[in-house]
Write a structure and sequence with these properties.
- Keywords: Coiled coil, Kinase, Membrane, TPR repeat, Transferase, Transmembrane, Transmembrane helix.
- It contains 25 helices and 14 strands.
- By secondary structure, the protein is α+β, with helices and mostly antiparallel strands.
- It has five domains: 1-30 and 359-455, Tetratricopeptide repeat domain (Serine Threonine Protein Phosphatase 5, Tetratricopeptide repeat), CATH 1.25.40.10; 31-102, Immunoglobulin-like (Sandwich), CATH 2.60.40; 117-196, Serine Threonine Protein Phosphatase 5, Tetratricopeptide repeat; 198-308, Serine Threonine Protein Phosphatase 5, Tetratricopeptide repeat (Alpha Horseshoe); 526-729, Heat Shock Protein 90 (2-Layer Sandwich).
- The radius of gyration is 49 Å and the shape is elongated.
Amino acid sequence: MKIPLFIFTAFVILFSVAAYSQGNRQLDNKSFMLKGEVVDGETNIPIAKVNVEILGGQYTTTNLSGRFAISAKIGDELIIKSDDFVTVYYAVTKNDFITVRVEKAKEEIESSVAKGTNLKSQAGFKVYLDSARFFLKKDAQKSIEYVTRALEPGRDKTISAKENRQAFETLGDINLFWKQPDLAIDNYKRSLQNTPNSDVSIKLAKAFAENKNYQESITTLQNLIKQTLSAHQKVEVYESLGDTYKATGNAIKSVFNYQMALDIAKESQIKPKITNLNSKIGEAYAQSGALNEAEEYFDNSLKLAKKENKQRAVSEKNKVADFYNQNREYDKEIQLREETLEELNAMGKAAKVEDEALTPQRQNYKIANAFVAQEKYEQAIPYLEKSIAEADKNEDLVVQKDAVRKLSEIYRDIGEFDKATESYQRYVEVVDELYVKKEQEISQAARFNREITQKQNRIISLENERKLNESRYKLAFENQELVERNATIQKWVIISLVLIVLLLIFAAYTQYKNVKQQKFANNLLALKSLRSQMNPHFIFNALNSVNSFIAVNDERAANKYLTDFSLLMRSVLENSEEDFIPLEKEIELLQLYVKLEHFRFKDKFDYKFSVDETINLNEFVIPPMLLQPYVENAVWHGLRYKEEKGLLEINFKKIDAKTVKIIIQDDGIGRTKSKEFKTENQKKQKSKGMGNTQKRIAILNEMYKDKVDVTVANVFENSEGTRVELILKKD
């Protein structure tokens, strides 16, 4: 099947419009600097130092001219608040300069107090609770605030169990009206804990049903049937049972309980309930598929509703029209909705109908749907246009969206694609606007629930505080003598506990100090052990040198070497019992050792000592024989194997007043080649001198917090030469 070119073009246009709309929505999410001012609603005088914040985002205050600037996005919610006026919530819809007019906070109860009415002494609880009920359907927060004030504890203020029940019952009524059944359940339960009451139990059952706790609702209502109830209460109980069974899809039990309620209502002449129950029985029969029975009861409800007020009549006509729609009796539906529209227009602004379906835009839309169901598109179009106009006037974006889309579909089906495209573009625009509005509503609902929950918690804390105060006062009189008698005992117990804690702290400190001293002593012992291992190692290496002189029959050289060696040994033995020696002595010992090694290998290397004159050698101390193993390695493993004559440099440089750098550098064959010259026996044995030196440095750093730092590196890129840098710190 081939698609005509103009149809294809229309769908391309629709797709482009949708894409363009999506692009605009993404652009709307970009931040911009929103500027505005806050002024008094009556005097237009700018207000300074007002808190202005984005919900969950930026924050600022107004300047002396009442102006502000804040980073915002389309769809954000602006909160303008101060202690001097009522908090204002402003939805950001475009990037324009805004003027926010605020009203001074007017608390009815506070004004009464200002006029001299002592509410706390003159039925204060009743006044507060009446105010809460007055604002119940107008302002949930203000209504809850009055309940809070009613429950606030005071010095000369006591609240009876009955008053407590009434307060929590009112709270439950507020929660149930504002669609918070979970909070309503909690408050109704608290109300019943104070004093049992059948009316509150009925409300609790309704809250259970609203929260979809159907079994709890049924159980509560069945328990109420066993109690002594008034006729009106019996009607309420059976009607609520019918509602609950209807919600669970049990039409038989639903009709049975509705009928029980209807019989009692007729017997007791409760006329409003008779109308409602006829309507509900009709709905239950319709739900079960018993259409004839349903129509009979709907006819009854229509006749009865006409005898009541106009609001009740139009509400019932809407329900019956919905029934005709389900049965595809569109002509009857259209007739009823036309009558409903006429009556709504006649009532005008005086109409106080809470059902959102009873609006001109909604009724026009449903009439159009009935014509569309009969494929009477030309007759549906005017009603859709009326619905769109009414919805636009009343800012009903939901109906406007549905009506515009339905209109686009009708134009498409009758082949008027230009109008279909135009209507669809309007539909996309309305969807975008509705998207922003829904986001704002979700944000406001979250804030509303959060604030209501906070106030609920405040009331619960007040209730707990009140109970605690009552218990405290009662116990204070009964236990006053006991408290006085136990005061001395408590004081001594506290003193004893404090002494025990102090003793424990002292014992822990002593233990810690002993452990620390023991660890320090162990480290000293380890240092001495390593130092005692260094001396035999050094003597063994020196005797090998003497042995080499004797081996070549150079007795004179051997005698001279022994003379210098004896001086070195005397210095070593003198320092062997010291943990630290002045740096000056270590340098003298090192110079004597290097002189001996040079005497033996004078053809292999020259040496050079350099000591910074600014170093106070007596202020710095160093463990004896710490540097000698590095010098020994430089001679024996670096310079000894070099073919040409090498150079050993030992430098002492001052870094700062507390730090000296010691550099031991040679231009020998390097560590890599030195390993190649080792015999198999030497490879198997670890260097005793270097191993002990590393252990000594590790222990010293643990005891004295990084006293010595050693790094070893190659001097030249070909891995020849070795440079040892040792950083020595003053204690």
